[in-house]
Each structure stands twice: as C-alpha cells, then as structure tokens.
Amino acid sequence: MSTNTFKKIVLAYSGGLDTSVILKWLEEQYQCEVVTFTADIGQGEELEPARTKAQAMGVKEIYIEDLREEFVRDYVFPMFRSNAIYEGEYLLGTSIARPLIAKRLVEIANETGADAISHGATGKGNDQVRFELGAYALNPDIKIVAPWREWDLNSREKLLDYAEANGISVEGKRKGGSPYSMDANLLHISYEGGELEDPWCGPDDAMWRWTVSPQAAPDDPETIEIEFKNGDPVAVNGERLTPAALLLKLNELGGRHGIGRADIVENRYVGMKSRGCYETPGGTILLKAHRAIESITLDRESAHLKDELMPKYASQIYNGYWWSPERLALQTLIDQTQAPVNGSIRLNLYKGNVIVSGRKSESNSLFDASIATFEDDAGAYDQKDAEGFIKLNALRLRILKKREG
What we know:
The protein is of the alpha/beta class. Among the domains are: 130 residues, HUPs (Rossmann fold); 139 residues, Argininosuccinate synthetase, chain A, domain 2 (Alpha-Beta Complex), CATH 3.90.1260.10. Helices cover 40% and strands 19% of the residues. The strands form three sheets. A five-stranded parallel sheet has the order 3-2-1-4-5, sandwiched between helices. It is elongated and about 85 Å long. The mean pLDDT is 94.
C-alpha cells in the first residue's frame, strides 16, 4: 500500500477495462472513496453504462457531463483561429481535449472536497503530461495519482486477470475485438497500437470508422459554403449552427467524401517517436476554409506573423501547455487578428480533397480587383513605382556582391 493517504480521489472514468480496474485499484491501494467523472466530448458512445458500472462498484458520487458545446466553442475553435497543425500533419484532436478534462477534474475535486485526481494515461504517452500540467496550472496543490506509473498491471492480460479476480464486469475478450487503442471526440478519432506499431505496415482499410476511402467516395464533388464571424465558423450552407452541431455537420460531409485521414509518425513530448492514424474530416475542412477566409481579410504581415507563431502555438497544445501564460498570450494576439475575419468560403469536397472555389467578405475584404487586375487599372497602381522599390530592396544584395569582387 502507498504511504500517501487520500480521503477522496476524482477519477477520469470511461467505464472501460482500464478505468474500471483503476477504480478498484485506487480503493484498495489508498483505502479511500473514489468519485468518477465521465465527459461527453462527442466520442459517440452511450455514457449511461458508465454510470451503471460505477454504481455497481459502489461509487456514491458520479459525474457524467455533456461538454460538447464547451469543448468546441472554448477549445477547438480558439485553436483553429491559429490554423494550428503539429509537425505539418496532426490537427491535435486528442491534445485539445485534455485541458478541458483536466479543468473539470480539478473543479470536481474542489466541489467534492477531494484531495487528489487520477487518470488512466500510461507512463509512455503524452496524455499524462497534458492532464497533469493542466491540473497543476489550475491548482498547484492538487495531488495526482497515475496508476500506470505505479502498478505492475502492464498488459491487457493482467488487467483482465485483475478484473476477474475482483468481480469487475468489463466488455471485451482476451482475444479478438479491435487491435487498436482508439480515442474519439467531436474533432477526431485516433488509432494506435497493433499493426500500426510497424511504420512500414499500412493500416487496414477496415480500421477507419468515420470516413469512406477516397476511392469509394462519390464520383461527383459536393459544393458547400461556410460562413465565418470573427474567425469562427457560424453557418454551413446558410444554416446557422451551434459550435458542436457545426463540427458534427462538417464531420458528416467530410466523412462521406473520404476527407481527413492521416497516417503520421510524430515526436512525442516524452521523447519517443510514435505512429498513429487519425480521422479528422470536419477539422480538415475547417482548416482549409479558415485559411481561405483569412487570405482575403487579413493584412499580409498579420497573416505572416500568425504563420510564424503557429508551430510554437501548436507545440504548446501538443505538449500540454494550454493553461500556460505563453499560450494565453499567444491566444490574445491571435484573437486580436480575427476581428476582420468575416465572410464566406465556397468549397468542393471530392475524393479526399477540399478545394476552395470561392471567397467573399462583404465588409472586410482587402482584395481590390481595381489594383490587382492585369487589365487597364486606370491609375490605381503606378507600375513605374516598382523600379525604385526593387532597387532599394536590392541595395544590400548589390553591396554584398561587390564586396565579394
């Protein structure tokens, strides 16, 4: 038994094998009461069975919360204002969900008088870092129990043995079922483990759950319009939707056309490389659309500054620093640029591709056809001025070349 003593621990609880075993293990190891917290962030699963399982295990305080709107409104949309993408490919679907869960764990601990929180993230992954950095940032005195760093139940077989020995009812058999570790929310679904641990082995097409293969997608493109206000999407095809409903709609549209699959080897914050596959259909559409509306509404230097800062911002989210002062400072800067990002984008969805076919902003467009035209510009731009501009910018290059002889 651990030398630490806790009177109550709040557990991030899914009702699956891992967290069901953790619930019992916490009660035995720490001789304390456990509060369960289950968040609906759009994983597409019925959550009431988690309540039933927790009740069957004697849990008295059970939190099951619908956080879908908060998740998209306060986490996904702010992230997409930055056009964040990690290492050129990953749209941060798992990463962006963790700060919200960490926040609620800390809040529930405060509400219930608990003195510790617990999670089911392994000691090899990024999620332990994200949960715990977030929790410490919000409550520096919180205690955290990470069973995967303490116990010896380090395989599925051992977890199943423990569950059977303790009368814990869990779905799943010792063999069969999905070979992948999966995580889903309204932004994406991820796949790791199994055959994916060999980076040379391509994923089985039967693995994908949200998207058809691009080859099997409709032969005709589908045209959609997305309207933006202050950098956030507010309507699809003229229908105004809540943040969660809008992302769900884009997921459905993208999934139908085979959009948003990614097969990535990424650099984890804990130091290792890992291979994962992701489906992010709505996010892929949203990123393309947001960059397109910014292309006509953002000043050049503001747009370039955002592009320079984006990798840093993406790393902050990936590494678990959502609640850090540097991420909050960057968010303030990013949000400041979004006031004029208003208008509509027309897109064609076709066999895994998102193709921009139109952009318009009634009041915030910086695109001036009278200046950009290749036809007679009626004096809007004096082309002779370019000569001096070029010579001034070439001055240092000419001096350097003369010095070289």
